Amino acid sequence: MIEVTTFEVQTVALFGLGGSGLATAKALQAGGANVVCFDDNETRVAEAAAAGLKTQDLKTLDWSGVSALVLAPGVPLTHPVPHWSVDLARNAGVEVIGDVELFCREHRKLCPEAPFIAITGTNGKSTTTALIAHLLRELGLDVQMGGNIGTPVLELEPPRPGRHYVVECSSYQIDLAPTLDPTVGLHMNLSPDHLDRHGTLENYAAIKERLVAGAKVAIVGVDDGLSSMIADRLELARKPVCRIAGERELTAGIYAHNGRLIEAHDGAQTEVALLMGIDSLRGDHNAQNAAAAFACLRALEIPADKIAAAMKNFPGLHHRMEIVARTGRTLFINDSKATNADAAARALASFDRIYWIAGGRAKAGGISSLDEYFPNIAKAFLIGEAAEEFAKTLDGHVPYAVSGTLTQAVRDAAAEAAEDGAEEIAILLSPACASFDQYANFELRGAAFVNAVRALPGGGNTQEVA
């Protein structure tokens, strides 16, 4: 745990007692703050009290003596309307911050020279975060990974010289971190997402930009126009910027081309790593992830050959283009994390012959934007609430069946794939939807896919690879 000492003997209000909120309350209390916690969920309040934390309805709190409101990232700060606790804090002139901001303050206080790498982007940030941490560990370095991926940032070990922090940051966390100042800030890409929480795409983009604007070195993916403009603005502000790409050639920066990473500098282009043969880094999207991770370690002055060697055994992440089994020529791929069309596009672009399992609770725009990948799809198997809507989009373009449930979709896809003579076949769960109609989260949906694959007739002959 990182004890938050920057609010020692001060009163701090905290709202939101989920995983990261509870961890933050404990870190503040351990650092000597007088923490007053609350949540709209009575069970969470009771659990916090049982853990020895002070709980009180913040509506009854005397805000004149409060130094800060620490808000859990899932609680609305601005849209669709500010949470009532935010209104109370602002009316009292109290700053509203989150756990990443507290981490930044402790990092500056305890050991600012400890490398701090922060990663954001609409898609790819989790894989890139995990890849960076993997590379650093492979090189024998002391690494702490957390934030929006797995471990809450304040549950990591305290800063000390030589300890590297690799922190995934969501837009919600950035919005609550006004002094975010990583050693290396990495922004991957932008596409419409979380607009219910940020109001407009422009607001969402501006929040993402804060992470790289506050960094000592900025690494920016330029495969999309909005992100390319972020890189241009940073350069105009004389910020050190490294552009990275997975889908286009660059004259300066690091980009992927035909399964290779190329470092371009002063007109010279040098191959620095080979991605072909690394299953966990298939596709243009993963090529961008690899370019980003490579650029990050180069910014830390790590030699290119050492980075390339460490990249070869990256295992990948669960639920992100995860090859969970093989049966002959057929790959079973769990990409349950693809909760929007843009994320699903990355998987659909990575295979030539796909039996696609899609559906769930649809997001704005559905799957109409995926039409360029329809030729890659041998057949679609539709599940959940979105099945009827997706069927209308696919009708006349892609053969489809409405399977209804994920288990049935796996059975249906496996049966048809068994008759396919293609050299390589992908049975791909890449839903392009939220999971909430049938599963509490994408992790449970991915686990259900794996279980359905293992339950297939003849599953004893299936070679499990994850």
Automatic annotation (TrEMBL):
InterPro entries: Folylpolyglutamate_synth_CS, Mur-like_cat_sf, Mur_ligase_C, Mur_ligase_C_dom_sf, Mur_ligase_cen, MurD. It is an enzyme of class 6 (ligase). One of its GO terms (molecular function) is ATP binding. Pathway: Cell wall biogenesis; peptidoglycan biosynthesis. GO terms for cellular component: cytoplasm. Residues 119-296 form the Mur ligase central domain. GO terms for biological process: cell division; cell wall organization; peptidoglycan biosynthetic process; regulation of cell shape. The keyword Cell division applies. Keywords: ATP-binding, Cell cycle, Cell division, Cell shape, Cell wall biogenesis/degradation, Cytoplasm, Ligase, Nucleotide-binding, Peptidoglycan synthesis. Coiled coil: none annotated. NCBIfam families: murD (TIGR01087). PANTHER family: UDP-N-ACETYLMURAMOYLALANINE--D-GLUTAMATE LIGASE. Belongs to the MurCDEF family. This is UDP-N-acetylmuramoylalanine--D-glutamate ligase.
